[in-house]
Design a protein that fits this description.
Elements lengths: L2 H11 L6 E5 L4 E10 L2 E6 L3 E6 L3 E14 L4 E8 L5 E5 L6 E4 L3 E5 L9 E12 L6 E14 L2 E14 L2 E15 L5 E12 L4 E18 L2 E16 L4 E17 L4 E12 L4 E14 L4 E14 L5 E13 L1
Antiparallel strand pairs: 1-2, 1-5, 2-3, 2-9, 3-4, 5-6, 5-9, 6-7, 7-8, 10-11, 10-21, 11-12, 12-13, 13-14, 14-15, 15-16, 16-17, 17-18, 18-19, 19-20, 20-21
Length: 335
Amino acid sequence: MSISRFLLLLPLLSLPAAADTLWLDNGDRLTGHIELMEGNRLIIQTEFAGQVAVDIRRIRTLESEGPLLIKTSDDTKHARRIQASEEDGQIVLVNGDTPPLPLEITALRQIMEPQPVIEDWVWDGRATLSLELDNTESKKRDLDLDVTTEARHGDWRHMLSSEFERDYRDNIKSRHWWETDYTLSWFFAEKWFWQNRVSYLRDHLGDVERQVQIGSGPGYEWWNNALGRFETSARFEHLRLDARDGSDSRTNGLGLNWDYRRYLFGKRFQLIHNAETIIPDDDEVDYMVDAEAGLRYLLNSWASLSLTTEWDYISSSDEKSQNETRYKLGLGVSW
């Protein structure tokens, strides 16, 4: 090793290994916790600056004492510890079974944390305040508040969500309802889970005054990592509807659900798409769809802007079919 290379490596060797560390080509150094690398952006959570996105072309080398899943340009996956390299633009992969492997940083496609085994409670959530977008000239006042929180411990996952909406058009109330639901999922295998859900909706203006929905069934988690998650489920549903005219109905059916969340461009954007399709045992209703798709822009680690589309569709054999699409712009906070 040349003296110049040795002097260049001395600062690397003298640093504590407790935190992940990036050395940049301008001489700066970042320490924190590496969360994700994708799309030429590496996300590191720092103590003083919060979440920082770094262009990987500016990284001279890096190190991490924790295990990381690494995907290279040849689609080879590695679960390794990363050591800093004395060569600019390189890292060294170490796993103990094979000799350390030098690797060009530009050859990296993804870096992710492996999915941990959750022993303690992990809790997060999000609240979003939205306004409906339309091209009408009527005066409107909208209030749409959506709160979702999720907790997971071991093989159990709890999800509680509530939504409240009240709209005025030309000082006339056009929509006023709220809904809350609780979902409990038990992971009896690595990917498979059994899900139970109960939902209650109260509508102060619509034809259906109250709606109670209870469902239970299996689901499959296709993937869940630092990039997001995708899961599907099928539930046996019991649906109770209380109409405003005093009539009511009870029906059973099959519910098909999916939930897709995917970070893009180094956690700068998040693509979301979830939907529920219910096929009731009802001669008058063929199926019902409640879907949402949107894009969320993360301003920082806790605030975001979102643009979403909501689609409610009921296919009926009589004249009660419904097809409603709405567009919303929202400001959200996460914890």
